[in-house]
Amino acid sequence: MSAETAVLLTFIFMLAVVAGFELIAKVPSTLHTPLMSGSNAISGITLVGALLAAGSAGDDTLAIVLGTLAVTLATINVVGGYLVTDRMLDMFRKKKEREEDS
Amino acid sequence: MSAETAVLLTFIFMLAVVAGFELIAKVPSTLHTPLMSGSNAISGITLVGALLAAGSAGDDTLAIVLGTLAVTLATINVVGGYLVTDRMLDMFRKKKEREEDS
Amino acid sequence: MSGPLQFVYILCAFLFILGLKLLSSPATARRGNQLSSLGMLLAVVVTLLGNELLSFQWIAVGMVAGAIIGALAARLVAMTSMPELVALFNGFGGLASLLVAWFEYQSHPDLITFTATTVFVSVLIGGVTFTGSLVAWGKLSGRLSGRPILFPGQHPLNALAIVALLVGGMMFALEPAANEQVFHAILGMTALLGILLVIPIGGADMPVVISLLNSYSGLAACATGFVIQNTVLIVTGSLVGASGIILTRIMCKAMNRSLSNVLFSGFGSTSSGGQGGTETREAKSVTAGDAYVMLEAARSVVFVPGYGLAVAQAQHAARELGDLLEANGAEVRYGIHPVAGRMPGHMNVLLAEANVPYDQLSEMDAINPTMDTVDVCVVIGANDVVNPAALTEESSPIYGMPIIEAHRARTVIIMKRSLGVGFAGIGNDLFYKDNSRMLFGDAKASLQALVAEFKDA
Amino acid sequence: MSGPLQFVYILCAFLFILGLKLLSSPATARRGNQLSSLGMLLAVVVTLLGNELLSFQWIAVGMVAGAIIGALAARLVAMTSMPELVALFNGFGGLASLLVAWFEYQSHPDLITFTATTVFVSVLIGGVTFTGSLVAWGKLSGRLSGRPILFPGQHPLNALAIVALLVGGMMFALEPAANEQVFHAILGMTALLGILLVIPIGGADMPVVISLLNSYSGLAACATGFVIQNTVLIVTGSLVGASGIILTRIMCKAMNRSLSNVLFSGFGSTSSGGQGGTETREAKSVTAGDAYVMLEAARSVVFVPGYGLAVAQAQHAARELGDLLEANGAEVRYGIHPVAGRMPGHMNVLLAEANVPYDQLSEMDAINPTMDTVDVCVVIGANDVVNPAALTEESSPIYGMPIIEAHRARTVIIMKRSLGVGFAGIGNDLFYKDNSRMLFGDAKASLQALVAEFKDA
Lengths: 102, 102, 457, 457
Ligand SMILES: NC(=O)c1ccc[n+]([C@@H]2O[C@H](COP(=O)([O-])OP(=O)(O)OC[C@H]3O[C@@H](n4cnc5c(N)ncnc54)[C@H](OP(=O)(O)O)[C@@H]3O)[C@@H](O)[C@H]2O)c1
Ligand SMILES: NC(=O)c1ccc[n+]([C@@H]2O[C@H](COP(=O)([O-])OP(=O)(O)OC[C@H]3O[C@@H](n4cnc5c(N)ncnc54)[C@H](OP(=O)(O)O)[C@@H]3O)[C@@H](O)[C@H]2O)c1
Prior knowledge:
- The complex is a heterotetramer, with 2 copies of chain A and 2 copies of chain C.
- Helices cover 80% and strands 0% of the residues of chain A.
- By secondary structure, chain A is mainly alpha-helical.
- The longest helix of chain A has 31 residues, at 61-91.
- The radius of gyration of chain A is 19 Å and the shape is flat.
- At the A-C interface, helix 1, helix 2, helix 3, helix 4 and helix 5 of A face helix 1, helix 2, helix 3, helix 4 and helix 8 of C.
């Protein structure tokens, strides 16, 4: 990795941390459970690494098992995390909305 | 510029814009005048470009004039901007602090 | 991966950020979550298209299986079991990153030291996250005892395990190809360490543990991002890391305990006994009929739910009573303490499930200043979060923790099964105040009895 | 520039960010500004050390001269002249970036098209910022008439100038070396364009213009940052750009006008006449003695300052009266409208100069809900920001703009020199309400008369 790239990646890291703290500090306590499950879903981004692994496993059985299992687990994390967050958030209704529904 | 560097710089731009909007939206209206003069001072970062110019001017008279004038003006912007902001902010006191002073 | 596809990663990162931003209000939060998942989908598609992968067969198998399991789990779980489900998902995420690192090593055993180091870090964090989250899941779901498991020599044992892991990691990083045995030992040790670190922590502290593990997995993603120069990993990792750290800090602050106290003190190991035994004062107990008379006359009512509401699954009954009180002309609000229940925002999710509109859910800081004008405050299965000792008794372990000041209401009705203690394991003066009335029994049963009184009237 | 020094740029950017973050509270803002200036110092030092510069002689000359001028200007200017000083500094910054771009061209006339394009963009934004800010400075300081200067064919002329500039820019970008004449023409044209664009805008709209020009210079810095691959320029440019855009939006929203209305409508060209002439109702005028009697009996007083406070330099007199009222047992607050005066936060700075503690300065949204319980509301040289027409009269040009609802106080005392209009050029029903009393005269003189009454009593 060139020094230049290292500098740029560090810059990105610094800015992402700042943006992350600012944004998350603004999430109201009402939504802390969805925040927890939602950021858990985002951390399933390891799926990207798992895909690269499973897609290049070749013939080695252990490698295939590792890659496929990694994809499965990461997908559970991503799909389950987003869906459960969606299910929770769908329940948050304003008084007005609630009356319109019923 | 390599494609990779372009991607990284765009990333930095995106994150800086997000961080900038989040941070500045939080500045209370009480401090909007210092914010204006302070961000004006920061925009004097062109000083960096002016320094590079004035430092590599060589013998060309026009180049020397341009470089030196650029350094002068950018320095006015930076020094004046920060000092005037400092002067304003120094006046903002809590009730308690004010009583301690007098 | 080619340039244009890299630009798509910027878009993905932006969608994750936008998703978090929209989470700042319940009205936009759902759209935010959807945008975030769109970002994830994009990242997956770009990864599949932009790399020359050998075979898609195993990818398809894994993704289909994972999607089915994930969707079923998300749809079927009860809202009251949310904490354990998040713990489980978190564990799966940890195991996935461990497996990716293992795969990396398996396919190229002769890694350079730098890469081997990050493989080790990924395995370490991933493994600890996996078994630690499983233990947390067990404690939260009641499959394991919630009591802290303490034994003599625990701290030295943990220290030993950590030292052994670091030594093993060093050996592995320097000569990965020659040290396959060491790598397998590391795998086992990290799994063990996760268990060892979490068993001495009480069940109710599990949300802190999960947040912390989640933030570690974010930091691990950052580290990996630097290694494979993947920007989206760096950004996502930072966001997840920041979220975990902030949630951990909020919980510790609301419990008025330091993080190291949560992790190492075995807090809650004495909770079931408590000081209840030495109590000589008498609490005034009432029947549902008496409580009905008080509520019927009240113009302003505040419900304060706590962990007992979740245990009794009483959220729907609470909503029903609230609606009846409103129909009866009273102003009804719900006062939500930030750490009521067993995870941050727990009560909000339960009440939202029961269709309580979120504009009726008031935060602690909004409800306290108005407490003096409240006619009846109904405490439903809450204990520590309404304990006035936090304000007055300097010797109390929860002294300094902000509480919902229920005792300042004209009348307080407290629904719980006994005079027993809550999570912090300490007695509660509130039960013995002049304006307090205990309505003993399961919270759901008590609420239903009140609902019946209103309907009969 | 070598790697390690590049890392220092990250630190600089972080210091700028931290500086803005600390600006979120008056208690920490000063430290934030100092950290930000430290970041700038670091950036300068790193630039001087990390590049092989030919000579430091001219740098020294420029920096010493600039520092002396800047410091003197910052120390000597009166607080009431802050808007024009910011305009002037902004103009200097614009000219500096124009000169840097010119230098670039002067030293390597055979630029590649891409670089030539950014040189053109820098010259364009820099030049417009320079002359535009100078015009703004002239209007704000009274050296030029504040009236919008409108003439027939203005819009076509501007369009022509812009088209000519774009054609020139294209020619220049394609063959920079051969087109020196064109470049000089571009220099002249941008200067002219800055003047043309700003003269049709009324004096009171100058803060919007300055914010907008400032945000453009941020965007120009971003563009330059991409060209010379300088990260700190990109980040700083984004921050400045965001700040300018947000401030512009706040001002437009608080005035309930669109940005294009501000820039192109010649708003304020009819302001001096106004509808005052057709008024038949009588406003009740009082003397300082009468006003003293009302204030003496008041338990709760709110001051609402406006542009007239700045004109009269009445901030110290207001503070003195406030202190006397407090000594007399009244609760005294200052209700600050976000666009009272002529720049955002203008009133806050003036009152802070007069030593009013910032915890007494209440924002509009905090003061309005309590207005019904206020005994006396003292309006000091404010007009539009307390005009109830904004709430009720759909035909009014300011309809929809949020105001400080002074008319809801038990009694309103209005200090101004006449029944004349304010910036928006419209009449104000407040002056004719039953609970309103006009105290005519210069605001400072009226306040001093009241102070004298209190001291004599
Ligand atoms: N939310 C978080 O993020 C989080 C994280 C970590 C720790 N904590 C801690 O958890 C505690 C939360 O406070 P809290 O007031 O919500 O709960 P609590 O203090 O743990 O008290 C819960 C009460 O509910 C009662 N209860 C249990 N089952 C019931 C049922 N079926 N019907 C009626 N009542 C029932 C219990 O009394 P009986 O046995 O007499 O019925 C118990 O006293 C705090 O100490 C907090 O620091 C929270
Ligand atoms: N703050 C910003 O950022 C900003 C930016 C752009 C535009 N604006 C606009 O500026 C206006 C600000 O409203 P405002 O209420 O502060 O001011 P205003 O509506 O412009 O009214 C100022 C009043 O002060 C009086 N006055 C002038 N000199 C005085 C003196 N020496 N003693 C006493 N009174 C004096 C004038 O009345 P007499 O002549 O009768 O004395 C005038 O009516 C709004 O329309 C706003 O939209 C503000």
